Every structure is written in C-alpha cells, then in structure tokens.
Amino acid sequence: MKLLIIYPYCLEARVHEEDISIVPMGAYYVAALLMENHYDVEILNWYNFSREDQRIKDILAEKKPDVIGFSVLHANRWGGIEIARMAKQVNPNVKIVFGGIGATFLWEHFLTHFKEIDFVVIGEGEHAFLNLVKCIENKDHEQIEKIRGIAFKKEDKVVKTASAEFIHDLDELPIPAKYFTYQHVALTRGCPGNCTFCGSPQFWGRKVRFHSSDYFVDQLELLYKRGVGFFYFSDDTFTLKKDRVIEICKKIIERNINISWAAISRVDHISEDILYWMKKAGCIQISYGVESGSEKIRKQLNKNIKTDQIKKAFSLTTAYGILARAYFIYGCPGESWDTIQETIDLINEIKPLSAIFYILDIFPGTALYADFKKRTKENFPFTEGDRGNFDDIWLKQIEDILYFESDPHLSQEIILAYGKKLRTTYYESLYRFADEIELTDNKELYMTHSDFLSKLGMTFTHGDYSQIEAIKHKDKIAERLYQKSLTYYPDHRAYLGLGIIKQKNGEYEESVSILSKGIEYFPDSEPLHMCSGISYMNLGKYAEALPYFLKLRHSKDAAYYIEQCHKALKNT
C-alpha cells in the first residue's frame, strides 16, 4: 500500500519564502508511525508548486498512491483542494485525507463542500490516521466509524466520531529522525496561554505535554550526524520547565552536538540560569510574543504579560549574547495612534535587534473567530442560501480575515499607516540599539559574545538588514560591531568584515593591517588571504599581493588575480 503525505502550496505568494516552506512537524510524526507499522510512506513538500504545475499529475501518476494525507494549514487549504482534485482525476479510487490545524477547525466545511475529500483527521492525528489507513487497507468500513478523532461522509451526511484522546506519553511515538531529515523540532505539545488570536489552546489543549530530555536530544543527535547544524525549536514556549531545558542543554554539550538553534519563549518564563545554559548549548535567537506596548491592547488579546517582564526578558537575553526577536501585532481591538506610540515607546526601551510586525488576523479555532461570528451573525454578506453556515466564508479564495475588516473604527488606510510608522521608526532606531548592546561580563562567554557581535555586524553588510533602505549607516553600524567583537575574542568574521569595509572605503593600508592580524589567528583562511591580496593590489603592491593568491592556487578566483599580478610585475 502506497501512502503520500503532501504539504500543499499556499494561496498567496510570500516575500519571505521561509514563512511557508517548512513541512509541519506533525506530518513527520504521522509518517514515522506509519513507517514503524511497515507502510510505504513519502512526504512531499509542494509549497513551491502551483495549480498550473504539470508535475503534480505526473508525480501522482508515477507514484500511484492508495491514500494521500494533506497537511493543511489555513493558508494552504486551497492548494490541498486543488491537488486532491487532480489526484482524483489521475485515480478516482485514491482516498483523500485532510489533517492538521486548518482541517481540524473546518472539518464540516471541507466534507460538506468538497467531494474530493473523503476523510478529515481532527486534532492530534498520529493514531487516528494509522487506524484509518489500516481500515482502508482491509476495506473494513464498519470499523472506520469506531475510529476516534475523524470525520467522513456517509450517505450524503457528514459524520464525526468521538474525539481522540491526547497521547499522554509523547515518547511512545517513534523519533521521526529515524526516517526523515528536518530542522524543526519540538519538546512539547500545548501552551498554557490562552491568547485570543491563537488556535493552539483549542487544538492541543492548555495542558502541556513534554518529551523526555533524552528523546529530544536523541532526535537532535540523529539529525546532527546526518549533517543538520541549525535547528528551530518550534515549541509555543520552549522554556516552560526550567530544569528540563537546562538538562537538555547539558546533554547537548556532553554529547558534543555542535549545533546552533533558535527558540520561542514567553517573557514570563525566562531567567539568567536558562539563558546561560541555552547560550552554552548553541542558542542564538529567542523570539518573544510582545504583541503591543499597550497593556490595554495586550489585555484585549488575553496576552497576560507585564511591561516589566518584557523589559527584563529582552535585557537579559541580549546580555547573554542571544538575539532577542520581538513579535508585534497591530490593528487590534482598540488600536489608535496612542497605542501605536506606546508600542514605539516600548520598542525604544527593550531595543530588540530583530522585530516582526503583523496585522491582526482572524482564524478558525481562535477566540477572535468565535467573537467575529457572534458580532457578524446577522449582517455578514452571505447569499440567503449560505446565511445559515458562517464557515461558508471560506469558500472564497482567501487565506484569512484581517480583524480591521470587521471593526468600523479601523480602516485599511489607517492600518497601513500604523504599519509604516512602526517599521520606519524601528529601522531608524536600529543603529542605536546595536550601539547600546551590553553583554554580561562572564569570561566563559567571551568567545560566544564575539561571535554574536560579528554575526550581527554581518547582518547589516551582507544579511537581511543590508537590503532595507530605511536602515541608515549600515557600514558604520557593522564596523562598530566588528570592532566590539574583537575586544572579546579573535573572530574570523569580524576581521574579514572590517577588512572588507576598509577596502570598500579605499582605506587599503588599514584593510591590510586588519586582515594581517586576522591571518595570524586564522592562517588557513581563504577569504582573509583573498581580501589581503586585493587590498595590496589596490595599493599597487603586486609583489606583496602575489603570495596571498599563490596560497590559493586551486581557486578559480585566485587564478585570475595571479595572472593580473604577473602581468603587472612584468610591465614594471
């Protein structure tokens, strides 16, 4: 029996492809459990396909799946529907199963309106999907009705079975890394928070379940040995259990798993001990949901964090040389220029070195959506025939509903103005935030402090910030960060970055001096030698330049410069 799990393309293109390019972790867990039960399973990441892509039908015809499971978020539901239609055209007998958070909250909608969809797995899907596959394989239709956590069509009616129980011991699940390679991992399922814009509480429940530290680190080790060096710890709040986090960090260090990673946390679940061990174990970034500088807005969103907690978390995180990223939401209930200014004031106090700004969205499964349905029940612009089912709004080719569209006190014009003000003010302040970084004076962390500062510097000259026009004096910011980096520890990136900046400014003697110091510490560095040779050439010192290029004879770039040096020396 051949099984495919497909992650479909989204309805709308993204500026930042990484936002939609990752297969959700749940798909790997589902596939791993099927593999453990001796099924032939493939995961296909089709985020970059489109409805016009002929490859879809060709691949489906080639692989001949008996069952296709779709990992459905809200944004890619139409991609799933379109691929399902193509699959039925290729093979009318293939069984189509939708699962994931998007399917869980719209199961009745999908089964009512889309004949291509045979089943929906609701909620945590590993065992429900496995049991469904077994019944399909055995053609045991009576047993299908006994499977908990699914919905399906029966005699033109939509049937939902009893809810599935949560998996109490997550370690019972096979480690997906035994079969697949990926970068997103999770220690937990669930979140104790109850934010109005988030579907996690209703999907996972507010009681948080944990993998053991050994399970989690075993997974990292398997992937690390396969060549994965960077990870996203994708938990809603990775740091909920301080002792477990520190235990994981110590195990990463003890096993010599030399990785770097980013995590998500809450400002009220962070401490110096946690940050120290996370930094030692390779953490380079922590994202915090700040949402707003206005306590009134945060209360509206049921984000129960205090301003003092936000300030403390950002100060400590930066002090340990970890990039503190802030998530902000604007266009919220009660938003005004005063609350936007409160957010700007908070940004200026916490000095985040990375910030993401979102317009408030309304999605099924959230408290905001329930409130939206209640507020618009009588006057939502459906046809008369559709008025009885509010979820029929999702028959439109839309990914989401923006909150401001339902609030008469807000407009698209004002929302765009809020966003422009927030982003412009943030980018204009970044130079100051970078200059005012204060790191904890712990000699044990000096090497990682140096690395942190040089990476941040490179972001301004070669990374994401280098492309943003609103950020002024990028080279100056980077230069100061590189110089500060070298006060802690010799850092290859800092020497190279400084050398390039001096070279770009025509300060070739200074460039040579800095790069020479770098070569003393990193004698085998190709970039340092290449950059040194080019600086000498710009000084007209071809004899001094040539030895740097000769060390790189195998390089095509070096061969060009060797030839140019020989020509110049021949003509002198």
UniProtKB/TrEMBL annotation:
Its cofactor is [4Fe-4S] cluster. GO terms for cellular component: cytosol. Gene3D superfamilies: Cobalamin-binding domain, Tetratricopeptide repeat domain, tm_1862 like domain. Residues 3-143 form the B12-binding domain. CDD domains: Radical_SAM, radical_SAM_B12_BD. TPR repeats lie at residues 492-525. Residues 177-405 form the Radical SAM core domain. Keywords: Iron, Iron-sulfur, Metal-binding, S-adenosyl-L-methionine, TPR repeat. One of its GO terms (molecular function) is catalytic activity. This is Cobalamin-binding radical SAM domain protein.
